[in-house]
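Hi Y.,

Following your request, here is the sequence exactly as I used it, all 260 residues.
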Amino acid sequence: MPKYSTNTKTDILIHLAIIVSVIMILFFGFFFVYLPWSTNHGDAIKVPNLRGLSMNDAEKILDDYNLDYEISDSLFVPGAQALSILSNYPKSGANVKTGRKIYLTVASISAPLVKMPNIVGRSTSSAQNQLLSSGLLFAGEEKIAALEENTVLKVKLNGSEIQPGDDIPKGSKITFVVGDGYGNLKIDVPSLVGMAQDEADILLSGKGLSMGNIIYEPSDKPSGTVIKQSPSAGDGEKIKIGSPINVWVAGDGSSDTDLN
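Below is the corresponding structure, written out as tokens. Let me know if you'd prefer a different format.
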């Protein structure tokens, strides 16, 4: 084994220079040669856009990009295709190394069950808010004769009545059965024949009724005069509050005439 002289100051400096040189070579070799080689430095690719794709399509694209994947979570999203990609991490467009594992969140195959909240007796606006907070959707209203106007009296799913506390799929569309505010109260059918159309409309509104279909036809009566109605007025004829009355009016409807 060779021996190195350390008898002089110069010998010591030479030895120190050699040691420092070796350390520097090892340092730069590790960080600029070995580390880039071992981590595929410079071999970065962008994560493709996977959102909305089926699992089969996403898998093919990831294979083309030489990326691996793992399903990390599944969520139920109303309207989303089962097993379609909802999101991924790292996000689309991020730079990653070849072979990097992409974590996928997919749409679940079936909806989880939630309990139908008790919204009977609530106003329609309050009931809708409670539906949304429970993960359910509002499908519309079905009016029935009842004095409780805009109040939920029953709830239906797919045409069948359901009860508070029933287990139903999250995202289900719920129909409200609400009162019309009139109930089954009936009044005498008012006589509109001979009145001007606008006067008849005012009379109906005052009695809680409405103008239904308006049919114009030629007549010897002044234009705008009601010449017939349905249902007809008469002794004992009754109509439910809120119902419409159809009228036939003299003229062609092209202009309004003041009959007063």
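The radius of gyration is 40 Å.

Thanks again,
Q.
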